[in-house]
Amino acid sequence: MKQNTTRIILIAIVIAFGAALFYFWKRNKKEDVVFNTKQPYTTDISLTSIATGKIIPDEEVSIRPNINGIVSKVYVTAGQPIKVGDKIAEIKVVPNISNLQSSKNSVSQATIDFNNQKKIFERQEQLYKKGVISINDYDNSKTAFDQAKQRLSAAKENYQIVKTGTAKGFNAVANTTVKATISGVVLDVPIKKGAQVIQNNNFNAGTEIALIADIKKMIFEGTIDEGEVGRIKEGMPIKVTVGAYPDKSYDAVLNYIAPKGVEKNGAVEFEIEAKLKLEEEDYLRAGLSANANIILDEVKDVLALDEGLLQYDKETKKPFVEVAVGEQQFERRSVELGLSDGIKAEIKSGVTKDDAIKEWNAIGMPEDDKKKSKK
Fold first, then answer.
1. Whole-angstrom distance, CA of residue 275 vs CA of residue 253
2. pLDDT surpasses 70 at 198
3. Residues 161, 206: Cα–Cα separation, whole Å
4. What's the mean per-residue pLDDT of the chain?
5. How far apart, in whole angstroms, are the C-alpha atoms of residue 178 and residue 59?
6. pTM of the predicted protein model
7. Residue 266 — left, alpha, or beta (φ > 0 → left; ψ -120 to 50 → alpha)?
8. Residue 221 — left, alpha, or beta (φ > 0 → left; ψ -120 to 50 → alpha)?
9. Which of 364-369's residues contact partners 24+ apart within 8 Å by CB, and which partners?
10. Does residue 346 surpass a pLDDT of 80?
11. Residue 362: pLDDT above 70?
């Protein structure tokens, strides 16, 4: 009985030991590694830098009045096409009481002086005709009379300007009708009927009546990081994509790079501008957000490889690939690289379009092969 029990225990130990050995053998068994391959291909490669910004008009004019007053009528609305000379608004002049009274008093004083000089001149004219006074006295009297007449005229014109905002002979300078100075589209009309406006002068920019721009002449205005500004220059081609129209890009040319950067959120940024080349049917609204792809370098129809297929020698740091020469057999070949955009790289020499390049980072057996081996 004891011998049977001992035998059973020994058999159990052997079985357990064998099962453990089989488990560890199975666990540590390495699957065969199968590498996939890819072939070089012909493509275009461009190295670009991204700038963020917005679309703004190249020609934008703020219309401001040259008289003070109250808006009595508005002729335009935002989005409306407009031409040079079209009416924008009418302004009713509201005179300052103090200035009005002062100019009125000036007219009264000038009238009194004029009437007095007129009487003196008429008397002197009669005496001159009788030969009582000399021509010099006559001329002095006539000059004084003409000056009084001119002062009266100026006082009346000044009174008229204070009262109505304009005067005879000054319609082109001070006009109650505000007109467009350029052709384009009305972007904004910030005033309404009844609003008080201030004239544009040396001490005040004046009240904006309307904002007009030529939407066929648009530019991209954005910023670029200091790390990229040294690689760009004026005249470079740009592709502009607008957030509102993601399926279309617009050609542009870089025409301005700010000479001074501005620190923003710990980084220095430089302002750039690029003039868009718009077609007749293109319509872009001012203020749309946009991105500009600045083409730093570009090659077309070149042999290229995915960057993931490239390997680099640990000592020389030179690139190479492994080319298939048989079933899962590869040989090392050095390659000469050209332009790279970080995804694909130009291959100048080392491989041909028909070579199969090893995916060096592939590990394990493909799923299809694993299923076949299990069966």
1. 5
2. yes
3. 19
4. 83
5. 19
6. 0.56
7. left
8. beta
9. 364/31, 364/33, 364/34, 365/31, 365/32, 365/33, 365/34, 366/34, 366/36, 369/34
10. yes
11. no
